[in-house]
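Hello,

Our lab assistant flagged a job as stuck in the queue for most of the afternoon. It eventually completed. Since we weren't sure the result was trustworthy after the delay, we are filing this so someone can double-check. Below is the sequence as submitted and the structure that was eventually returned. Let us know if re-running is recommended.
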Amino acid sequence: MSKSTSRHIAADKSALSQNTDTSSASVDASVSNTPTPRRDQKKIPLVIKIGASLIALIILGSAGYLIWRHLTGAAQAKEQISAAIASVSESDAAIVPLNNTITSDLGSKTSDELTKIKGAAKKSSSSLDDAQMHVGNALSLDEFMSDDERAVVKALQDSVGQRRKLIEAGEEVLTIDGGAFNAKALLTKAMEKAVSADSNIEKSVEAAAEYAKSLAGEESSVTDASVPVGFDKAAMEDITEAQSFENAAEQAFSEADYSVYTKYLAARKDAIQVLMDSDNAIASGDFDSAQASIEDYNKREAASSELAQQLPETPDTFLSEAYEAALKKPLDTYKEIAEALAATDKKIRDYQGLAVGSSKKA
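-- returned structure --
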């Protein structure tokens, strides 16, 4: 091999060596520029992810339950309020006739009519009991109610109590009214019987005078001594019944002073008894005793006539003052309760207007 050839081979080796070095450097640079994976990135455990999801579900479930509970409670409160209002309205079916009688018909209804009105008013207490129950149920749902609903529940509670008091006061008024009505009727019967007794006494006196003619041998329409005695007995029955009616009137309406009647009827009864004694004495032929009894009768008759002058013109005029006095306190109480109830019921009506408005908006 010549030196020239050796130099070419050496040159080629040198170039190859340089190329090899360059390629190696290029590979190293390429390798050094390739990004290495991040070995410090942490993975979130699956159990933690599941736990977080469960917590989120619990929170959402709790929120949903609370919303459902509130909506349900609010609906139940509204139902109880509506039921309470309905029950209160039912009670008015009996309370309205009671109120109408007291405000415009006092003194015009019979005792039986008043008894029916009072009985119906008492029965309305069952409706008020139902209303009170619904109010109590609504109060237990206080947390779900609006301020307007709380206000109407308070108004309903007041309304129930006021209606009970109204019925109680109204019954007292009607009891007085019915008592006075009965007393007037009984006193009227008593005086009718007293008048009947006077009529029988007049007949007795006339019969006694006719019988006296027959005793003197004169023409007479009465020849039997028992005829005037019969009229005396009829008069005694009348006056006794009159006293019974008067006593019943006192029992029916004790607020009045009946002494003017009791004294008169007692005096009339005493006079009739003396007249009967006189006629019985004549019938038995004891004319001396008969004369003494006649004189006694005349005195008693004069005394009873004076008492008759003191009698009231009618039982109605006699009872009117005592009736008005007896009615004043319970009637004033009734009117006060009625005014308070009217104000309370206005609150309920106002709420119903709001409720209807809210319903329409919804």
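-- support follow-up --
The delay was a queue issue, not a problem with the job. The result is valid. The CA atoms of residues 355 and 361 lie 10 Å apart. Residues 147-215 form the longest helix (69 residues).
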